[in-house]
Amino acid sequence: MVKPPCVLQIVGYSNSGKTTLLTKLIPILEQAGIRVGVIKHDGGHDFEWDQPGKDTWRYREAGASLVAITSKTKTAIVEQKPQELSVLIQRLADAGAQLILVEGFKREGYPKLVLLRRPEDEELMSIVSHLVGIVSWTDCRQPELPFFDINDVENIARFVMERTKLGM
Question: 111, 141, 127, 109: which is closest to 13 by C-alpha?
């Protein structure tokens, strides 16, 4: 039986540094031997993965519900319907992810690191559930939660590994 993956959400308001933090954490975690999967929530937008005019784009435009493309180095599947976070997590787990980092989905019930860029962002801590730590651009420590400066990526990675018991 395959061990279920660990899930950690990275939440914050727009331009709080979520993507930048993830792009710094991923190589550290992968180098520690953890197979990392990432899910990005594109709240309210209609992202475009394909390029207009390319074959896969044309297949979708023709009405295909699912389109897959594969090469020697990667595979992508585009599905023409939204999915629940739990389904996406299971798919990445089935593909071998040990740790799934989720950017966004503020209202989901997984453990969360909250990113706070400005003092006004602190109200987010009262909105989201399952907080396990704070990452901030300013010193806004809370007595009950671990605090990390946004630039302290090594200690954030160590916290993630200790919390998930991966890569140790």
Answer: 127
Q: In DSSP terms, which residues pair with 134 in a beta bridge?
A: 114, 147
**What is the H or E stretch that residue 133 is in?**
strand 131-136
Quick one: tokens of 158?
Answer: 């160590």
- Return the amino acid letter for 101: L
- Nearest CA to 132 among 151, 110, 107? 110
Tell me which range, 40-44, 112-116, 163-167, is most confidently predicted by mean pLDDT.
Answer: 112-116
Model confidence over 63-112: pLDDT tens digits? 888 888 888 988 888 888 888 999 999 999 999 999 999 998 999 999 99
Q: Give dist(CA 168, CA 165) in Å, integer.
A: 6
CATH fold for the domain made of 6-48+81-164 = Rossmann fold (3.40.50)
Cβ-based neighbour number of residue 133 at 10 Å: 18
